[in-house]
Amino acid sequence: MQLLTAIMQPFLVDRATRALRAENISQYTITKIVGAHKEIQENQLQHAIEMVKLELPVNDSDAMKIVKLIRMATTHNDVSDTVVWTVPMLFYESGES
Questions:
Q1: pTM attached to this predicted model
Q2: What is the mean pLDDT of residues 20-39?
Q3: How far apart are CA 82 and CA 73, in angstroms?
Q4: How far, in Å, CA of 50 to CA of 9, rounded?
Q5: Is the CB of residue 58 less than 8 Å from the CB of residue 68?
Q6: 3: helix, coil or strand?
């Protein structure tokens, strides 16, 4: 299993979730997040940016397919600000050593 995480602008969430539902994927978590980036100018200001984090568990065999699905759904005019990655999920049962 992999944990897929996608960071995107809030207006792209509907596009991403519609694409997931079209593939019968309905178990995901959406979280509002705030990030910062530096503008490279004379005064180097940092600005807070509101974004959305979408997370869902995916099978290893489906991971790249779903990454591409989200990227395609959130791309407009060959440009996508959505960042998508996966990491392996490890399961531990509590109470056992």
A1: 0.81
A2: 88
A3: 10
A4: 7
A5: no
A6: strand
Per-residue pLDDT, 34: 87
Which three-class secondary structure string do you get for 27-94?
CCEEEEEEEEEECCCCCCCEEEEEEEEEEEEECHHHHHHHHHHHHHHCCECCECCCEEEEEECCCCCC
Rounded to an integer, what distance in angstroms lies between the CA atom of residue 28 and that of residue 23? Answer: 13
User: DSSP 3-state assignment of 26?
Assistant: coil
Nearest of 58, 36, 1 to residue 70 by alpha carbon? 58
Q: How many Å apart are CA 45 and CA 51, to the nearest integer?
A: 19
Question: How confident is residue 58, by pLDDT bands cut at 50, 70 and 90?
Answer: very high
Q: Are the CB atoms for 84 and 70 separated by under 8 Å?
A: yes
Return the bridge partners of 58, or none.
Answer: 2
